[in-house]
Amino acid sequence: MAIERTLSIIKPDAVAKNVIGEIYTRFEKAGLKVVASKMKHLSQKEAEGFYAEHAERPFFGALVEFMTSGPVMVQVLEGENAVLTNRDLMGATNPKEADAGTIRADFAESIDANAVHGSDSTTSAAREVAYFFAATELCPR
Ligand code: RTP
Ligand code: MG
């Protein structure tokens, strides 16, 4: 299997719940390494640019409002099949549909406040990692 990188965000609801460490533990137990991380309070422009693919969707305004409502923790995860491994750990977008034991099932309240973001493909991952991190900020090992 290929070693990949993926962009993960612990969203404002999960940061407010003080479960950053519990979520990091899930990454580590699944064999994903944190190779870069930063806490940030996204500006409206940063959130709109990050979720630009959803700009025409009816939920876009609510998504941007939520993502700017408090600080987020942004990290690059590296490991075998990192994109899909992280999506499996996250669970379905709507926590009501997320499998038991996934991050969203355990920590998310609603489809809007759903605890985490994860890149959905290696192509998205490349764009999203570069959106938040300079190449020199990544520390693979
Ligand atoms: P994310 O990008 O945040 O990792 O979530 P995702 O891939 O599971 O879902 P995506 O389709 O990319 O949607 C991005 C975020 O928009 C909100 N959303 N609301 N009300 C709705 O129908 C709806 N659909 C999506 C969610 O907060 C989702 O995480
Ligand atoms: Mg998505």
From TrEMBL:
Enzyme Commission code(s) on record: 2.7.4.6
Gene3D superfamilies assigned: Nucleoside diphosphate kinase-like domain
Keyword Kinase: yes
Gene Ontology biological process terms, A to Z: CTP biosynthetic process; GTP biosynthetic process; UTP biosynthetic process
PROSITE patterns the UniProt entry points to: NDPK_LIKE
Catalytic activity: a 2'-deoxyribonucleoside 5'-diphosphate + ATP = a 2'-deoxyribonucleoside 5'-triphosphate + ADP; a ribonucleoside 5'-diphosphate + ATP = a ribonucleoside 5'-triphosphate + ADP
Active-site residues per Swiss-Prot or TrEMBL entry: H117 (pros-phosphohistidine intermediate)
Oligomeric and partner information: Homotetramer.
Name the UniProt record assigns to this protein: Nucleoside diphosphate kinase
Species: Umboniibacter marinipuniceus
Lineage: Bacteria, Pseudomonadati, Pseudomonadota, Gammaproteobacteria, Cellvibrionales
Gene: ndk
